[in-house]
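Sequence only, no structure available. Ideas?
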Amino acid sequence: MITVRYFAAAAEAAGVDSEQLPGGTVAQVRAAMVGAHGPGLDRVLDRCALLADGTRVEGDDDIAAGATLDVLPPFAGG
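Reply:
I predicted one. Tokens follow.
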């Protein structure tokens, strides 16, 4: 299992701040997130950066069991 932490618009779209999901590739984890929370989250995920234990991941990258995946939408300001 991995811990998924949602921030800002991603948390709003998911309806939760965090959850436990099975690990796997980014694509598999994303499918699990969308399956659990619906197409509204899918639209937000298109704009999000995904960081597994602080390292950006995408597509076929593996997310190891025990990792923390942060779902970070773009933030205004700087």
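The two ends are 33 Å apart (CA to CA).
Hope that gets you unstuck.
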